[in-house]
Amino acid sequence: MGTLNADVAVVGAGTAGLNARREVEKRGGRAVLVESGPYGTTCARVGCMPAKLLIAAAEAAHALEHAPLFGVHPGDRRIDGRAVMKRVRRERDRFAGAVVEETEAIPAGQRLRGRARFVGPTALAVDGRVRTYGELPGRRPQDMAEAPGA
Ligand SMILES: Cc1cc2nc3c(=O)[nH]c(=O)nc-3n(C[C@H](O)[C@H](O)[C@H](O)COP(=O)(O)OP(=O)(O)OC[C@H]3O[C@@H](n4cnc5c(N)ncnc54)[C@H](O)[C@@H]3O)c2cc1C
Hints:
- It is built from 5 helices and 6 strands.
- It is of the alpha/beta class.
């Protein structure tokens, strides 16, 4: 069972976690990021990003439907669902891929895979391996947590 000391343990490499980690770094702290699921964030993989791409396709279809009101007649409308989804997935993969790359660029010693569970006020267990944080001399976890904007 290994231990790892850090000023702040960030649980979850989602949008919030990645931003929190950046803020800790900006303030000269050492963060450890723990993620149990796939990298890429909910937003980019299955949330905001693919939803917005689908909405964009629906808006394009809607504009075509209403074009005759403006004297614009685009001809027979045809919605190719497979093409819509292909584009959604391609763009989603591009965006999520960039987030995965950014996350994987974090040094291995500051990035743990596994499920985090509190085992004490300043200690987390990650899949049974205890990792501590907030134990560095002169630093308390709340110093970082209370930093403005963190
Ligand atoms: C379909 C859909 C559409 C959306 N559209 C929008 C939108 O248009 N605009 C908008 O603002 N928001 C939107 N959202 C919401 C947005 O995606 C979320 O608010 C955002 O992703 C939350 O980010 P997060 O960092 O808190 O969580 P996440 O990105 O979900 O990250 C949390 C991470 O923590 C990990 N985790 C959790 N517990 C542990 C643990 N104990 N140990 C280790 N890892 C753990 C999880 O595996 C996960 O990867 C949408 C969501 C969905 C589902």
